[in-house]
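Inverse folding, one chain.
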């Protein structure tokens, strides 16, 4: 049987901790539990994923990975932070490197790619220019015969190239099609 940390609100009102202790409590105790709960939800249900990379000039790039899913307990769709998706080195902003970071998070947590029904990215060149798109790596590497419908700006002229690659571009938003 677990005993509550604060059996009543008067005790909680009088509790104080400094930054270091609070950080340790959050990172060492609460965060792992919250992440494990999220991972279990992602393993058993569908979700959409989004990332938006940092635009700083350092060799380390942050690509925060968020997911949107239906939370049965809350009876609504919720957005949750999954991982920071850090990439490093001179290729940190390349599509293949970003994909590898996302795939590592999925693999390390045993989250099946088939549960990811939509993927949203910002409009950087790694996501929207040329043949090496993050979305291409996901389409070819992880979703089998599925095709991805990907939101795109109308001024792009490589629609035929993208369709040949199995990526369908549209202005109404991202969709994963069977």
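Residues assigned per position:
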């Amino acid at each position: 049987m677990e005993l509550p940390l604060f059996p009543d609100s008067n005790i909680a009102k009088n509790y104080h901790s400094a930054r270091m202790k609070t950080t340790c409590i959050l990172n060492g105790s609460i965060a792992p539990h919250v992440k494990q709960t999220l991972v279990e939800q992602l393993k058993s249900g569908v979700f959409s994923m989004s990332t938006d990379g940092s635009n700083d000039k350092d060799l380390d790039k942050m690509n925060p990975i968020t997911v949107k899913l239906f939370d049965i307990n809350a009876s609504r769709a919720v957005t949750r932070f999954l991982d920071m998706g850090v990439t490093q080195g001179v290729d940190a902003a390349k599509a293949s490197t970003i994909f590898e970071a996302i795939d590592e998070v999925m693999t390390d947590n045993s989250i099946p790619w088939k549960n990811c029904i939509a993927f949203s990215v910002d409009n950087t060149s790694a996501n929207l220019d040329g043949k090496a798109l993050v979305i291409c790596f996901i389409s070819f590497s992880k979703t089998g015969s599925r095709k991805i419908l990907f939101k795109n700006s109308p001024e792009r002229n490589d629609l035929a190239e993208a369709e040949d690659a199995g990526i369908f571009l549209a202005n109404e938003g991202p969709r994963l099609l069977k």
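Strands lie at 47-51, 60-61, 65-71, 76-83, 87-88, 116-121, 147-151, 167-170, 175-177. Helices lie at 9-13, 19-44, 95-108, 125-128, 134-142, 159-164.
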